[in-house]
């Protein structure tokens, strides 16, 4: 009973105290409702001041803002795909064998001989073509190269020996000059380069034989100053049989070959002795030439 009587007394006392407080400014005032709520619930009253009241009134007076429009979503641009560059691998240095194979398989000559001297017929063709007037293609006067070549060939055959003599003499003079130039070239050329060029030509000739490359075979480079190889016993016998023959050489060679096979060793001995002596002289000359060059 005592506790029930104290509760209304405490409420009345608090309300009287709140109403009796004056002169301390707006910050010290406490609303009745806040005091009652605090007394009933047992919580402390929330303090209010003039600034909070002004803010509340101004917020209530302001019109509500319209809801912001949703922004359009812009599709993101696809990122560029960066492809990693392959790393550069350092090239291997070619070996001597690789360089050797590259040189041999090349189509370019390693060394070049001086140009050959023109023949008497080639000089005649040059003079013949100088006198030929230029003719436009597609006209009635146009002449094919084959027709002109036939005319030149027939004119050379019809030419007298005196007419051919001047061309032959001129060709011989050019050939002697060319032979001297070849000797000078061989005297100063590197023999190793010549050996490589001959290897290249041999490989090219194999390709021609296998029909992998079209064209004629290339002759090997021979040193005109070097000693010539001697003939064998059979070729010495063949030379004797070919002297004074008037018939075809092929038939004479067949007959000489059959005769050589039927000869006894005593009959072959003179030719064999000549061949052995020539071979010994050739070896001596080669050694002397190699030491001089």
Automatic annotation (TrEMBL):
Segments of the chain annotated as binding DNA: 114-186, 227-290
Record PROSITE patterns: HMG_BOX_2
InterPro entries recorded: HMG_box_dom, HMG_box_dom_sf, HMGB
Residues annotated as transmembrane: none
Keyword Nucleus: yes
Keywords, ordered alphabetically: DNA-binding, Nucleus
Residue stretches making up the HMG box domain: 114-186, 227-290
The protein, known as: HMG box domain-containing protein
Organism of this sequence: Coemansia spiralis
């Amino acid at each position: 009973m005592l506790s029930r009587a104290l509760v209304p007394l405490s409420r009345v006392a608090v309300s009287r105290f709140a109403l009796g407080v004056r002169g301390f400014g707006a910050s010290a005032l406490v609303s009745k409702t806040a005091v009652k709520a605090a007394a009933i619930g047992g919580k402390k009253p929330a303090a209010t001041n003039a600034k909070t009241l002004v803010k509340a009134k101004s917020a209530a007076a302001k019109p509500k803002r319209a809801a912001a429009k949703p922004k359009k979503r812009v599709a993101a641009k696809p990122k560029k795909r960066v492809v990693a560059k392959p790393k550069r691998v350092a090239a291997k240095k070619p070996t001597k064998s690789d360089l050797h194979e590259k040189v041999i398989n090349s189509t370019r000559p390693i060394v070049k001989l001086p140009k050959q001297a023109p023949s008497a017929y080639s000089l005649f063709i040059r003079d013949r073509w100088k006198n030929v007037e230029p003719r436009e293609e597609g006209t009635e006067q146009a002449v094919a190269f084959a027709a002109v070549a036939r005319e030149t060939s027939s004119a050379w055959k019809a030419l007298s020996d005196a007419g051919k003599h001047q061309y032959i003499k001129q060709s011989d003079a050019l050939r002697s000059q060319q032979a001297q130039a070849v000797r000078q070239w061989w005297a100063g050329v590197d023999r190793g380069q010549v050996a490589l060029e001959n290897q290249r030509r041999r490989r090219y000739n194999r390709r021609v034989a296998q029909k992998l490359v079209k064209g004629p075979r290339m002759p090997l480079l021979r040193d005109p100053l070097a000693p010539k190889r001697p003939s064998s016993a059979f070729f010495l016998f063949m030379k004797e049989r070919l002297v004074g023959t008037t018939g075809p050489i092929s038939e004479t060679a067949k007959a000489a070959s059959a005769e050589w096979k039927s000869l006894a060793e005593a009959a072959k001995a003179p030719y064999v002795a000549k061949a052995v002596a020539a071979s010994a002289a050739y070896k001596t000359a080669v050694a002397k030439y190699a030491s001089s060059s």
